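Good morning N.,

You mentioned wanting to compare the apo and holo forms, so I went ahead and generated the holo version with S-adenosylmethionine. This is what I fed in:
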Amino acid sequence: MRANIPRAYFESIYAANSDPWNFETSSYERSKYEATMAALPRARYESAFEPGCSIGVLSEMLAPRCQRLLATDIVTGALVQAAERLKGHRHVRIEERAIPEEWPRETFDLIVLSEIAYYFDEATLGDVMRLVIGSTWVGAHVIGVHWRGETDYPLRGDRVHELISETELLVPLIHLGGDEFVLDVWERRS
Ligand SMILES: C[S@@+](CC[C@H](N)C(=O)[O-])C[C@H]1O[C@@H](n2cnc3c(N)ncnc32)[C@H](O)[C@@H]1O
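and this is what came out, ligand included:
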C-alpha cells in the first residue's frame, strides 16, 4: 500500500497560512536557496522543472538561470501566489500537477527536487525517479535539497538522498551535508 502525503494535507496547511514554511522570511530557507543556486553546475539551463514549487520563492531565483522553467504544485492557492510572483517572467509556466500522476511529457536538462521527495513513500519515490530518468537529456542535472531533521513524513531527508543515489544512470557530482539540510547534485548519464 502507498503511504504518500495526500493533497488535502497540503490544502489545509495553505488554508491556515499563505506561506506555511516562511519561505519569504526564514533564514533557513534563504541559506538553503543560496546553497541551491550556488551548487547548480551550469550558469544557464535550457528547460528546467521544479515540482512542488509552492508560492514560487525558489522558482523566482531559478528563473533567470533558465530559458524555460516549469514550476508545479498540487495546491491551487500556492500556485496563485507563485503566478503573481512570476508574472513578469514569460518563460516560466506555473501549472497544477500532482506528482507522480501528472508528470509532464517534456524533456528537461534540470530537475529541482527541493523539499518535496520526503512526502513520497519509497515505492513512489522509485516511480518519480523513473520519470526523472525518462524526462531528462544525457548531461542533465538533478538537484535534491531536503531538511535533515525528524519529520512525520514517509521519509527523512537523508533517506531520500540515499534512494535517489541508487537511481541507475544518475552519477553524483556534488554532496553537501550540513547540520540542517542535505544537498546533492547528480548528472544523468547515457
Ligand atoms: C515544503 S514545500 C517546498 C517548496 C519549494 N520546492 C521550496 O523548496 O521552496 C513542498 C510543496 O510540495 C507540494 N507537494 C506535496 N506533494 C505534492 C505532489 N504529490 N505533487 C505536487 N506537489 C506536491 C506541496 O503542496 C508544497 O507546496
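The radius of gyration is 15 Å.

Happy to go through it together on a call whenever suits you.

Best,
F.
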